Amino acid sequence: MTIKVSMKVNGKAASAEVEARTLLVTLIRENLRLTGTHVGCDTAQCGACTVLMNGKAIKSCSIVAMQAEGAEIMTIEGVARPDGSLHPMQAAFKENHGLQCGFCTPGMVMNALDFARSHPNPTEQEVRESLEGNLCRCTGYHNIVKSIMAGAKAMGGKI
Amino acid sequence: MHAFEYHRPASSKDAVSLVSKKPEGRYLAGGQSLVQAMKLRLSSPSDLIDLSALKDLTGIRTSGSTVEIGAMARHAEVAGSAEVKKAIPALAALAGTIGDRQVRHMGTLGGSLANDDPAADYPAAALGLGATIHTNKRKIEADKFFKGLYETALEPGELITSVSFPVPKRAAYMKFKNPASRFAMVGVFVADFGGKARVAVTGAGPSVFRQAEMEKALSAKFAPDSVAGIKVKPDGLNSDLHASPEYRAHLITVMARRAVEAALK
Ligand SMILES: Cc1cc2nc3c(=O)[nH]c(=O)nc-3n(C[C@H](O)[C@H](O)[C@H](O)COP(=O)(O)OP(=O)(O)OC[C@H]3O[C@@H](n4cnc5c(N)ncnc54)[C@H](O)[C@@H]3O)c2cc1C
Ligand code: FES
Ligand code: FES
User: What is the CATH number of domain B5-50?
Assistant: First the structure.
């Protein structure tokens, strides 16, 4: 049995007929074909699946799609400027070598966007704490922290 | 995950009546425990009754002597609430140590108490402050709410609507985090109500419990030295790959002392 789920994704209306047990991340990747949102663990640990729901970072592998009914979702595909140029947070990751394989990066950027809005000039400690729910197997975090500090300054509290 | 039917009622009355018609139905709050359990097929409800549209389960209200928090208040909301920070800073701080940012944006107070995970943080605050859990049917004292491993006094279909926390003179929560999950390996909540102290321990036993010997010592004198010398018996404490009962017993004393120090700061 299927159920209709509708939401706004990256500013555009999106809907699909899904089984109620469909996870939000499955809807995003398989129904909407937005494969920038990654699945690293599927057990709520790694944060690779982080998206913004009504502006707040959440793990899309940890809720069913119906929980996002009527919500505004933003995925990594909605972050760059309409002309294709990088968002300041993305640019900061590039500048500061904040990624190696890049698998964790969409989740890192999405979490950082939400964090930076309330922390326009964060300390290193605050940034490290904000990364509790995001794992990276490559970088050792150092350059991710640098990227987020630079990106947050460049954003000036606005996504 | 097994298949289920999804419902999003608009009022708590509808939620309660829905669940009464679906014996295998469960409430869904943030899903941060329930969806996880369903993915692992540890839980397979026939119906999920999503509480997220229930306005009467939200909000934070303070009067002089209590802070009342709606069951659907997200951890991040409590952690960031100016009212809670002012009245019971230890409660806001505790909410801010639950899981990670993403989990705190979804997880709720009611879900945490109903779930009664042996290592959850909110049960320590509820028991440590002597909170009252309000449901659609009655009021339950925290002392009578936590029954055992994942077991509470809630009857089938009973809905937590809000929780009221008495405002103490001072309080603090100290948590020794499991470095992987960030759940409490041992967490101790201490509260001083002026000559009457309460101490609640989470993570160490099958469910949160009070530590009578420490309460007595702290009621006589609320100071770190009152608890620093107390040796807790390891009998009945949890044993897993993270810590032995002996280590957990040791941590209870260390966390209690640090919590008293923090409360006095
Ligand atoms: C990665 C990760 C780390 C975590 N770390 C911590 C941690 O450090 N400390 C900690 O305490 N917790 C931790 N949690 C658990 C988290 O706090 C959960 O949010 C919480 O335990 C359950 O709340 P929920 O709103 O998500 O409830 P749900 O998962 O939706 O529901 C849990 C249970 O409560 C029932 N329920 C929900 N609301 C009500 C209600 N109003 N009345 C009656 N029954 C209800 C549901 O039917 C279900 O049985 C973590 C979770 C994750 C995924
Ligand atoms: S895939 Fe969601 S947290 Fe790892
Ligand atoms: S860059 Fe490879 S996992 Fe983070």
Answer: 3.30.43.10
DSSP A70-105: T-EEE-GGGTS-TTSPPPHHHHHHHHTT--SS-SSH
- Place B181 in a pLDDT band, splitting at 50, 70 and 90: confident
B117: helix, strand or coil: coil
Q: Cα(B238)–Cα(B118) distance, rounded to whole angstroms?
A: 9
B170-263, which class in CATH?
alpha beta
B137-176 pLDDT tens trace: 999 999 999 999 999 999 999 999 999 999 999 999 999 9
Using DSSP, how many helices (H) and how many strands (E) does chain B show? 12, 14
Question: B32: which chain A residues are within 8 Å (Cβ-Cβ)?
Answer: 44, 62
Q: Counting ligands in written order, which one lies closest to the CA of residue A108?
A: 3
Which residue does chain A place closest to B1, by CA atoms? A21
Distance between CA atoms of residues B156 and B116, nearest Å: 15
Residue A49: CB within 6 Å of ligand 2?
Answer: yes
CATH architecture of B55-166: 2-Layer Sandwich (3.30)
CA B101 from centre of chain: 17
What is the best residue among B108, B139, B140 to mutate for testing ligand 1's pocket, by most ligand atoms within 8 Å of CB?
A: B108
Q: Do B31 and A111 touch (CB under 8 A)?
A: no
A17 interfaces chain B, CB cutoff of 8 Å: no
Q: What is the ipTM of this complex?
A: 0.96
- Reply yes or no on whether the pLDDT at B54 is more than 90: yes
Q: Do B6 and A56 touch (CB under 8 A)?
A: no
pLDDT at B36: 96
B91/B67 Cα distance (integer angstroms): 10
Q: What is the pLDDT of residues A104-157, one digit of tens each?
A: 999 999 999 999 999 999 999 999 999 999 999 999 999 999 999 999 999 999
Q: What CATH code would you report for A2-77?
A: 3.10.20.30
A97 lines ligand 3 (CB under 6 A): no
Contact between B36 and A44 using a beta-carbon 8 Å cutoff: yes
Can you give the residue ranges of every domain in chain A?
2-77, 88-155
Q: Is the dihedral of CA B261, B194, B186, A56 positive or negative?
A: negative
